[in-house]
Give the backbone structure.
Amino acid sequence: MTFIAKPKVTHPSLPQNALGLTRRAYEGALSTLCAGCGHDSITAAIVEACWRLSLEPQNLVKLSGIGCSSKTTAYFVSGAHGFNAVHGRMPSIATGANAANRRLTYLGVSGDGDTLSIGLGQFCHAVRRNLDMLYLIENNGVYGLTKGQFSASADVGTRAKKGETNLQPPIDPVLLALDLGATFVARGFSGDKRQLVPLIEAGLKHRGFALIDVLSPCVTFNDHEGSTKSYAYTREHYEPAVFADFVPREAPILVDYAPGEAREVALHDGSRIVLRKTGSDYDPTDRAAAGAAVQSRMSCGEYLTGLIYLDPSEARAEFHQVNATPDEPLNALPYEQLSPGSQGLRKILSRYR
Amino acid sequence: MCILIQPSNIVDPTDTSNPDYYHRVVDCQWACPAHTDVPEYIRLIAQGRFTDAYLVNRQSNVFPGILGRVCDRPCEPACRRGRVEDKPVAICRLKRVAADHREEVSARLPKIPQVKNGKRIACIGAGCASLTVANDLLPLGYEVTMFERYEKPGGLMRSNIPAFRLPESVLDEEIGMILGMGVDLRLGTPVESLRALLEQGRFDAVFVGSGAPKGKELRLPGRDEAAANVHIGISWLESVAFGHIGHIGERVLIIGVGNTAMDCCRTSLRLGAREVKVMARKPRGFFKASPWELEDAEEERVEIMVNRAPKAFVLEHGRLAGMLFDCMEYELDERGRIVTERVTGEQFLPADDVILAIGQENAFPWIERDLGIAFDKWDVPVVDARTFQSTRPGVFFGGDAAFGPKNIIWAVEHGHQAAISIHRHCQGEPLAERLAPAVSLHSRKMGMHEWSYANEYAPLERRLMPHVSLKERFKKLNIEVELGFSAQQAAEEAQRCLNCDVQTVFAAKLCIECDACIDICPVDCLTIAANGPEAELRARLKAPAANAAQPLYVSGALPQTGRVMVKDEDLCVHCGLCAERCPTAAWDMQKSHIHWPHAAEEAHALEARKPKIA
């Protein structure tokens, strides 16, 4: 970490977004993570994505649990709402907040420990409910805050900094989410912002649950030889399944792709994801094939990355449809509408007698 | 997928061992003709070490007190602060702070050997170039004789710069430091014939530092008839400086809008003029005067009239009554250059005196043309731009005498370079094989999160120089207008320096491409990208690298992906966060010291090369 704050001085020709804001307006507090932490790069990618989407900072909700990853919500978009939940309980808070106000954009940041161990049950149900949020896992395979023990995402055979080898199989959040019916599943790498930033943009715009599992090397406890989540190992073993570009609704179509080389998937708000082939015939709209591809790469010790699965129809009912939540945020509803009154309450209670 | 990149299509790794690379990053030092170590002396000022700051200055620019007031300041437009914000660091004013607050330095000046080396040098003119030659050669054991036509040394610094800008005491003290080293100064002794001087055979080398003493004439109708009230700027200033002129008419017109014109108009106001107009032929963007000199003149309510081309001197009853001007109109292209001009009418302006300040030339009526010193078609001696030697070995030129009117700081550097040449000439060494500049780097890392320089960006605006009130300043000719920075102002202004000499030094082999430096850089000057042709690479950077004149730093291939680290040096504020954030210390903050050789280093190197006698 550093104690030296990033000075306010900026490049004089920094571009502005539709709100007239520069990227710097989407920054947060000084990071207290180790210098070189992958999480800081993800923070920078979130800053870039929010700026590119011209999000009003006050319309973003940042939610997190406990861990190195969960500290990072303080380091971006300081003008947004934030909630640091109990360890592994971020999905509950996200569900409650979402139910109360569906107008806001929800971004949950969690880690492999917070999501796959203590919070695994919560995570599974958030996926199942198709909660309208982007759930971003900063996945480094170790517990950094407690000095580098293996987490539930550690691969078989990976070595800890002290030397012991992990023998337990990992829980892969991508496979899990595919299984649980997630409608947007992606994997990124903190060291590849060209891939990651459009994924975050698309994930924030996707209606329903979007998962991005981001491989994010722990520079202090998991960046050594023998680790399968180091910068060097990840670079050697990650394979983009497909290139995904995010095209906002307002943007004109500028690039002509050769036929068969790219296809567009429209999101509910009119923005589009342009999928470009990487050479293989990967189809990110086929859930079964996506799962098979992830598993097959995994058996070779490789990480399949990029937009792994997208439900192109956005047809699956998401949380608000299932629960018939009101369009208006609860805090904007008149008291009479929110409160059933003593008569109404009696009626409700009578149902339980 | 594999793209074969042809070697010609990529940028070669930057050769940072070339001393020019890091030198160029220190924009002020690179722009300074004498390569003064500006960030170093500003840091010393910030620490209150004024004497040390003065001596750092003196090593390269010789006259810190003088230049701290009247330098042409090529460093300031170059200053990076002016690119990041609006205004550059007030470098020149800080130099004066060091000079104003220093202690006695005589004990720390170079020692003059008792035993001389047997070589004698003649310097013609006692101005800044000649004085620099003496300053550099006397410590090496040379005997220097200096010929000066006036009764006081200092050349243009004394005769052309009014005392309200440069007090005589400052001038005397700094010139005195050099004269005190043992110059054989011959005042009131103009050299009338170079042949006679050379034929004496007394001197092993001659340095001509006689300046550009001839003011340009304006041949217009009425010029000769009005001669009594038409003055040549530099001669007039000289007469004022030496007390020969003490009065001027109430209405004065100054023709020309360079720095001499500014000195003339402000001097006129102190000699009784009430209404002074500076007449400019072209629009404001074409003025030759430094912006701060224009400001100072306008503060004294001098009117600057643009687009007035002088046409004739008008006489009444045999005496100057005013001048007639053509009113001009110009059409400019999008780059601000004049495309067409036309006369729209004429205007008469009454005047009691007119001062011509339209430029000056060097003139050498005292150099015979058959001495082996070649003159070019403009009748200016042919001088080697690097060695300052004329076509006659042993005769050197420097200052305005060499390449026409420039300014003090150029003359000083000419003096330094000529001194090196003179030393090599006297030692029988080829002039061109002089010491090359060098650079040394030393890390500023002290420990965890500790750097031994002030790397915090201070969001302060440029401090303003306090002036003597408009009421007070005209009471006497020699009341210095600028008061100098207060202690508080100096401390604040020093903080504005970005420490460009604390370089970001990158070791490609250590980089793990974690992007930490790129994410933290406040001015977005770093990018990791695939190498490519420079123009194309510039277009792919995180923020546009618009200043093509500033070379990019491009690393060698990075170990993990083979991409390269690219740094646009143009806007780097040297905050050190890249190094602070780097987990592998691939970035380090290292103080560069540019070794710009002077005669002393040259002598030392020559000495070291001689075989040792056991």
The interface with chain B takes residues 2-4, 6-14, 34-38, 40-41, 43-44, 190-191, 193, 217, 219, 223, 231-232, 235, 279 of chain A (CB under 8 Å). The two ends of chain A are 59 Å apart (CA to CA). The longest strand of chain A covers residues 238-247. The first helix of chain A runs from residue 38 to 52.
